[in-house]
Amino acid sequence: MNQLTGKHWTVGTPGYDEERLGFQRREPHRPAHIVGATTPEDVQRAVRYAGEHGLKIAVKASGHGHGAPLDGGLLITTTRLNQVTVDARNRTAWVQAGATWQQVIDATAPHGLAPLSGSFPGVTAVPYTLGGGLGLMARRYGFAADHVRRIEVVTPDGELRQAEDDPDLFWALRGGGGNFGIVTAMEIDLFPVPTLHGGSLYYDLATTPDVLKTWHDWTRAVPDTVTSAAAVLPLPNLKQIPTELRGKYVTQIQLSIIPDGLDAPRLVSILRDALGEPLVDTVGELPFSESGRIFDEPGRPDAFSSRNALLSDLDPETLDTIPKLAGPSAPVMCVVGIRHLGGALSQKPAVENAVGHRDAQYSMTVLSPGEDDLRALHDAILAPWSKDIIGRSLNFSMGPLTDDELRYAFEPADHDRLKWLRGIYDPHGLLQANHSIT
């Protein structure tokens, strides 16, 4: 790998640990080699080296989540491959593999444009999109994968390709994750949304026990310009927590509304009036560049795991099981996140892709910090919803999935097609994707 413009680490090389670790600290990768790519050609050389030496390949950008860790093999990091180029006239951006959504937002905001970014701007744009991409404007514009125009990718044979020239490859990459190549850049659509009306309403479940049912009723009547979610979590009694929230078991209603001629304050007031005065209210107009304030998710790297289910609806009676199974009496901290789907998410994109289960109306995720294997606990929390579960989301499944669980992330025929294409593009199984289709 003498021709690399980036860096090369092996075990024991100074900086090895810093380079292999990402946001997700549970079961980190332990590669034999790390290539810190700065150009698409670096990725090519790394892939060819791995192929010649029979090494498994994994990719880390922000490292926000992964399935099975890479043990040995070659890890490609893309943090330095992070250029964002905006074409304001055509409302597109060319985004390299290591760019975070915040970097994309910072580049697009001066033009009054916004990408289909997610709730946490520290996530890297490319892998988020390859997994589908459920963002702050999802009900209005659909999945991020629905608005990808071009993809530059290094396939496992070491060739740098334009995926849109190969309809099968272009279809599979958008929603099928990192199973078919290493994407070095993508061209995405941008939208004329300079501001959002959004933020969070926090309620104490001890005094407002029906907050989830009220929010659910509210979601059934809102227009597609409203994307919202609810998180149920126990907050510790620590000084860094706002005084009003310390030590409480709360529901955080997260609101992202595209103004677009809509009376957004009135819509929020309907919800607020039904629930009463919140403990904390951060809702208001904000520039899209500050959209990370809406969910206000922790930005510190940590070890965590999660399980996800896509639901046909929210049964109001089943909502009562969440505090019982995931509340303060649970053996570990459990954060239950529910996102309202539907709207444009239910529609087929202009160019079809592999994103599955578009008929889901809600997404539910159970997340816990720590190193322990908590699949049994998380599955028990999701079990009461079994009659409503129609699939799962790859991007919200932090931790390894069985083959049957992974199949459940796609429509059956799409999974069969993805499995067949994996054999075409990666016949030797070099790529270890976050969720590997085999």
- How many alpha or pi helices? 12
Q: Write down the domain tally.
A: 3
Distance between the termini: 29 Å
* Secondary-structure arrangement, i.e. CATH architecture of the largest domain: 3-Layer(aba) Sandwich
Q: Under the CATH scheme, which class of the largest domain?
A: Alpha Beta
Binned strand content: 15-25%
Order of helices and strands: EHEHEEEEHHHEEHEEHEEHEEEHEEHEHH
The largest sheet is: 9 strands, antiparallel
Query: What is the CA-atom radius of gyration, in angstroms?
Result: 21 Å
As an assembly, this protein is single chain
Specify the structural class.
alpha+beta
Report the CATH topology name of the largest domain.
Answer: Vanillyl-alcohol Oxidase, Chain A, domain 3
Extended strand count: 18
Percent helix, as a range, is 10-25%
Unreliable stretches, pLDDT < 50, 5 or more residues?
none
Shape: globular
* Mean pLDDT score: 95
What topology emerges from the helices and strands here?
Elements: E1 7-10, H1 16-20, E2 33-36, H2 40-53, E3 57-60, E4 74-77, E5 84-87, E6 92-96, H3 101-108, H4 125-130, H5 138-141, E7 148-154, E8 160-162, H6 167-176, E9 182-189, E10 195-204, H7 211-219, E11 226-234, E12 249-257, H8 264-275, E13 280-281, E14 284-287, E15 304-311, H9 321-326, E16 335-340, E17 362-369, H10 375-382, E18 389-391, H11 403-407, H12 412-425
Structure description:
Residues 27-193 form the FAD-binding PCMH-type domain. Keywords: FAD, Flavoprotein, Oxidoreductase. This is FAD-binding oxidoreductase. 23% of the residues lie in helices and 23% in strands. Strands 10, 11, 12, 13, 14, 15, 16, 17 and 18 form a 9-stranded antiparallel β-sheet that branches. A 5-stranded antiparallel β-sheet has the order 5-6-9-7-8. A 4-stranded mixed β-sheet has the order 1-2-4-3. The chain is α+β, with helices and mostly antiparallel strands and 438 residues long. The chain has helices at 16-20, 40-53, 101-108, 125-130, 138-141, 167-176, 211-219, 264-275, 321-326, 375-382, 403-407, 412-425; strands at residues 7-10, 33-36, 57-60, 74-77, 84-87, 92-96, 148-154, 160-162, 182-189, 195-204, 226-234, 249-257, 280-281, 284-287, 304-311, 335-340, 362-369, 389-391. The radius of gyration is 21 Å and the shape is globular. It has 3 domains: 7-77, Uridine Diphospho-n-acetylenolpyruvylglucosamine Reductase, domain 2; 84-192 and 412-425, 2-Layer Sandwich (Uridine Diphospho-n-acetylenolpyruvylglucosamine Reductase, domain 3); 195-400, Vanillyl-alcohol Oxidase, Chain A, domain 3 (3-Layer(aba) Sandwich). It contains 12 helices and 18 strands. The model has no long low-confidence stretch (mean pLDDT 95).
